[in-house]
Fold this sequence. Notes:
The protein is an all-alpha fold. It contains 13 helices and 2 strands. It has helices spanning about 1-55, 70-75, 80-110, 120-125, 135-145, 150-155, 170-180, 185-195, 200-210, 215-240, 245-250, 265-275, 280-305, and strands at about 55-60, 65. A two-stranded antiparallel sheet has the order 1-2. It is globular and about 70 Å long.
Amino acid sequence: MSHLTEVTNVKAKASKKTTSMETRIRRAGILFALPWIIGLLAFYAYPLFSSMYYSLTNYNVISPSQWIGFENYITLFNDDLFWKGLKNTLAYALMQVPLAIMFGVTLAMLLNLPVFGQGFLRTVFFLPSLLPVIATTILWQWLLNPQFGLVNAFLEKIGITGPGWLGDTTWSKPSLVIMTLWVLGNSILIYLAGLQDISKDYYEAADIDGANWLQKTFHITIPLLTPVIFFNMIMGVIHALQEFTLPYALTYGTGNPAESLLFYSMYLYNNAFLYMKMGYASAMAWILFVVVMLITVVLLKSSGKWVFYQGDD
């Protein structure tokens, strides 16, 4: 009987020791995660819920906020500049995202070829993405200058009259797209990683069947690269809809010519920090969030029809 009691006591002590150890481990884990949790609450959660509240108020930072309900949203839908900024942004995204994917995939496939100086060429194509946006802006303003820019000078040499580029409402957004296509280094790296992940067995089987390079490209490479294309598409759409720095630096915040480069984020910034209409700008931010989420959901729903993975039947 005493032996049974002793065994029970030993088990109870071991159980308490295990529970105590688990508690210490849990506390240590929380302690290590605490800086991240504080950062999440302070820099993400608090601004998020604050902007939701301020979007329903009349708030100019200086004086206390005044609750006005959905008046900011109603005013926005009757604001011509709001619609112009949204239209410009969507038009830019529709041009920039597909072209960025096509150019990115093409360049990645070329840079994946086993040629002499492959590493050097990859470095050259990646370097522009390291340049500051302001430096890129100054460079392209000079290249696309209608009077003495190198682009129009080259076009003149081959008998073509160059457009006004950034000074022309028709060509201003295409000019911006051209600038962004010059800094595709990050997406090219992702495409290269995806290309190198494709198993060589597919190409060997295609060679046995007598497939040429074009057939292998459209029946093996591109289908198996669609997961990477899909990722870059999502990220590209989000970035394009939030485009701010380049058009703001090009136009000094005016959106000229004729507000053709007045992007949604620029108008949001102007309302928040120039006109001090923080509640109005918060409402704009939430509308942008909803638009981005809707487009992302649509792309996610459609991905099952065109995104293929290795090993899928």
